[in-house]
C-alpha cells in the first residue's frame, strides 16, 4: 500500500512527463480500497500502468492505483477455462501465464502495455484480437457507494478502444478484477496481415510460436518505453463510411483501409500521418517516432504541454490534407 501527498506521477506514465497528484493511493486489496474510500475526498482519477495517459498538468485530487494481484482459474471444463486476474496484474504477465498454461485467446495481445484493469476500460487490441473477445466479466467497486458490481461483457458495451467505463461509468468505478474466457483447443487468430503472411505455410502453430512472432513484430516497430517515452498509438484509427474511402482512394490509390463493424471502414492513422510528412518529425523534446508515425515520443526533459501543441498541428494538417479528424486514443489529464 502507498498513501502519499504531493506525489510524483513521473514513474506512472510511460511518456515520463512530470506531474504530481495531491494524493496518491495504491491499494493491494478490495478491502484496502473500500476502507480508504470511506473517508477520502474526490475528485478521483484511476490510473493503470500509465501507458495511455498524457499528464499535461498536476492532478488536483486523488490518484488511485491498483496493485491487486492474483491469477486464478475459477471454472474449467474440457473446452475452456475462466481465469480471474487482479486489476493490478500487468496484461503481458497475464498473457504469458495463458500461453504457459496452454490457454488460447490472449496470445495476440503479447507485450501489450498496461494492466489487466485498464485493458477492460480501453478494450486494448492488437493483431486481430481485442480484450472484449476474451473478457467474460469485469468486477468493480462503485467509488461513491462502495458496492461491488459484476459487469457482463455486454454491459461493458465494448467497441474499438471503447467501453462503458470510458462513457457512462467514467470516474465512477474502480475495476478490481477481470475474468477472461480462454479456450483449451488450438485456435490461432491470423486475421492480421503480418501474421497471415508469416504463418501462411504453417500447419500447426503453438501458442509460444505466436507469442514469439508478435513480440518480434512489435519490437521492430514500437519503441521500448524504458528507452524512449511514448504511449503506444497516440491516435485511434479513424472509422469512416464507404463514400470517404472511395474519395480518398481515387486520390491515393495505395491507401490502406480495412473493413470495420456495421459496414464502416477503418483507415490507418499511421499511414495518414506518414503521408502528411510527420514520420520522424521532431520539435523540441517531443516528436513523431521515425519507425511508426502513429507514435508520439518524448526524448526527455519535456512536458505534456509540448505534446499538446504537436497534437494540434498534426490534427490540423491531417484535416487539411485528407478532411479527416484524428481522435486521440491517449487520455489527457
Ligand atoms: N503505416 C504507415 N506508416 C506508418 C505506420 C503505419 O504507412 O508510419 C501503415 C502500415 O503500413 C499499415 C497500416 O498503416 O498498412 C497499419 O499499421 P500497423 O499494422 O502498424 O497498425 P496500426 O493500425 O498503426 C494498430 C493498433 C496498435 C496495434 C497494431 C497491431 C490502434 C490505434 N493501434 O496500429 O495498438 O499494436 O494495430 O495490431 O488501433 C496501441 O493501441 O497503443 C497500439 C500499439
Structural commentary:
- This protein is α+β, with helices and mostly antiparallel strands and about 325 residues long.
- Helix content is about 25%, strand content about 30%.
- The chain is built from eight helices and 20 strands.
- The model has no long low-confidence stretch (mean pLDDT about 95).
- The structure holds uridine-diphosphate-2(N-acetylglucosaminyl) butyric acid (EPU).
- Uridine-diphosphate-2(N-acetylglucosaminyl) butyric acid binds next to β13 and α7.
User: Low-confidence parts lasting 5 or more residues at pLDDT below 50?
Assistant: none
Q: What's the shape?
A: globular
Number of helices: 8
Largest sheet: 5 strands, antiparallel
Helical proportion? Answer: 25-40%
Main sheet: strand order: 6-7-12-10-11
* Span of the ends, CA to CA: 24 Å
Oligomer: single chain
Bound molecules: uridine-diphosphate-2(N-acetylglucosaminyl) butyric acid
**For the residues shown, what is the average pLDDT?**
96
**Based on DSSP secondary structure assignment, what is the total number of beta strands?**
20
Structural class: alpha+beta
**Elements, N to C (H/E):** EEHEEEEEHHEEEEEHHEEHEEHEEEHE
> How much beta, percentage-wise?
25-35%
Work out the radius of gyration.
Answer: 20 Å
Amino acid at each position: 500500500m502507498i498513501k502519499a501527498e504531493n506525489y510524483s506521477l513521473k514513474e506512472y506514465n510511460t511518456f515520463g512527463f512530470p506531474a504530481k497528484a495531491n494524493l496518491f493511493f495504491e491499494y493491494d486489496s478490495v478491502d484496502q480500497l473500500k476502507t480508504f474510500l470511506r473517508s477520502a475526498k474526490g475528485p478521483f482519477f484511476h490510473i493503470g500502468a500509465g501507458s495511455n495517459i498524457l499528464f499535461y498538468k498536476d492532478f488536483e485530487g486523488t490518484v488511485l492505483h491498483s496493485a491487486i494481484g492474483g491469477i486464478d482459474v475459477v471454472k474449467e471444463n474440457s473446452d475452456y477455462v475462466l481465469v480471474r486476474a487482479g486489476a493490478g496484474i500487468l496484461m503481458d504477465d497475464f498473457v504469458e501465464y495463458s500461453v504457459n498454461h496452454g490457454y488460447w485467446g490472449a496470445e495476440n495481445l503479447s507485450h501489450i502495455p498496461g494492466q489487466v484493469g485498464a485493458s477492460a476500460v480501453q478494450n486494448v487490441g492488437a493483431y486481430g484480437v481485442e480484450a472484449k473477445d476474451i473478457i467474460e466479466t469485469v468486477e468493480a467497486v462503485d467509488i461513491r457507494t462502495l458496492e461491488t458490481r459484476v459487469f457482463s461483457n455486454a454491459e461493458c458495451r465494448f467497441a474499438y478502444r471503447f467501453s462503458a467505463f470510458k462513457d457512462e461509468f467514467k470516474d465512477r468505478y474502480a475495476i478490481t478484477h477481470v475474468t477472461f474466457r480462454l479456450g483449451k483447443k488450438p485456435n490461432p487468430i491470423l486475421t492480421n496481415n503480418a501474421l497471415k503472411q508469416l504463418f501462411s505455410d504453417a500447419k500447426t502453430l503453438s501458442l509460444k510460436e505466436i507469442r514469439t512472432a508478435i513480440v518480434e513484430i512489435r519490437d521492430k516497430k514500437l519503441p521500448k518505453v524504458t528507452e524512449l517515452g511514448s504511449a503506444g498509438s497516440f491516435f485511434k484509427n479513424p472509422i469512416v463510411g464507404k463514400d470517404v474511402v472511395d474519395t480518398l482512394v481515387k486520390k491515393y490509390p495505395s491507401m490502406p483501409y480495412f473493413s470495420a463493424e456495421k459496414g464502416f471502414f477503418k483507415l490507418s492513422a499511421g499511414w495518414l500521418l506518414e503521408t502528411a510528412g510527420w514520420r520522424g518529425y521532431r520539435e523540441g523534446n517531443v516528436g513523431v517516432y521515425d519507425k511508426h508515425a502513429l507514435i508520439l515520443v518524448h526524448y526527455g526533459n519535456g512536458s505534456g504541454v509540448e505534446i499538446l501543441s504537436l497534437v494540434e498541428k498534426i490534427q490540423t494538417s491531417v484535416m487539411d490534407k485528407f478532411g479527416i479528424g484524428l481522435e486521440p486514443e491517449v487520455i489527457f489529464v
